[in-house]
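A reminder from the course coordinator: this example appears on the midterm review sheet, so study it carefully.

Given structure:
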């Protein structure tokens, strides 16, 4: 199993490849706000652990194992963003909250959150009812 740090790199590499068709060390460093030397070290580790193939100065590609995990990590991130939006978390707080919790939930918990997001997606009136409860609670808290 990859560590949370490894997950961040795999997820970012997956997103870059999906978006641009490739992932360069400099792009990964910029997106993760780390030094390129840190990226190189992690990429070498991910290569050793068979999540990607890396050739110095030539770039990298995800292995089937890396692609599978990358896709699942992106799903987890997007799902948690959807979930936090549904429960009414302020839009400007969602990304940071997801970054803070995504590595601390089991895949079973993620799957159950997926079920809940699907339920709310299919039952839009439940989201409206939730908003009504939230407004009522906020009004009571102001008193």
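Designed residues:
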């Amino acid at each position: 199993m990859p560590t949370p740090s490894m997950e961040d790199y795999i997820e970012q590499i997956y997103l870059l490849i999906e978006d641009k068709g490739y992932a360069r060390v400099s792009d990964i460093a910029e997106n993760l706000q780390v030094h390129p030397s840190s990226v190189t070290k992690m990429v070498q580790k991910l290569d050793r652990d068979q999540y990607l193939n890396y050739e110095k100065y030539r770039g990298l590609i995800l292995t089937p194992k890396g692609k599978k995990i990358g896709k699942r990590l992106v799903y987890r991130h997007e799902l948690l963003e959807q979930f936090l939006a549904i429960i009414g978390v302020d839009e400007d707080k969602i990304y940071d909250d997801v970054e803070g919790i995504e590595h601390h939930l089991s895949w079973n918990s993620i799957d159950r959150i997926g079920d809940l997001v699907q339920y709310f997606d299919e039952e839009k009136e439940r989201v409206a009812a939730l908003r009504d409860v939230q407004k009522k609670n906020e009004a009571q808290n102001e008193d």
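The beta strands are 52-55, 59-62. The helical segments are 4-20, 25-32, 36-48, 64-86, 91-101, 107-122, 124-142.
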